[in-house]
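Quick board copy: two proteins, each given as sequence then tokens.
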Amino acid sequence: MPLKELLIRMIKDVFLITTGVVLCMSVYCMIYYPNDLIRISQLWQLLLPGILFSFPSIVFWAKKELSKSQWLIRSVYHFVLLEVVVVFSGRFVFGWLRDAGISNYLVLMGEVLVVYLLVRFIGWKSDQGVALQINERLKELS
């Protein structure tokens, strides 16, 4: 994927990821901290991950078009890298998992999977729409 196209995709993903983070944090806090109130500093913890968690997408940058197998390998690598970034930053940057048990980590990793799949699905549907528009224009030209 060309760098310009990748950067545009990453900017779109920031908004999808931020929405997913807000939803997941709400569920996570409902499960583990149902009586806590949200602080102003925590609002930034809902916004900043969208930016931080879009950076692993750089693994899709390539000067040439990727083959299906290359794309699949990079997708797996991207997901693993994303899980590491989320868990590491959740523990050490944002402090979400400071005194957490293994179940907290598993819930967070599951939520990452859900948001990952949602972002990928929305991106796929968007790409599919663009491809249909291109095909329609090509039909008009012929």
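And the next:
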Amino acid sequence: MILGIKPVLGIQNQSYLSIINMAPHPNAAKLFFRFITSEEGRKPWAKYGNYFTFSTYQVPAGQMSFEEILKVTWFTEDQFAYDNMVQALDLYLLNLLTH
């Protein structure tokens, strides 16, 4: 029996911005980051279910607040996922290959 399980709207996940080591144009990447984190640049991503970490971010009308979303979604802990990724992939591949 799994305790505390109930229907949810979805699973939370994080998105990250990064510049790879030895990128040929790191300053161009920094300019791009600045743009997509601006009000104008984040408009294409400002859809239902996407939230930004900026303290100035206003949730669009009709969208649930971040606090409401936290109550109806499961949170994925990145460190746990990283630590257990290989075992989960092995289980998946074993079952995929045997069926």
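Board note added afterward: The first strand starts at residue 10 and ends at 12.
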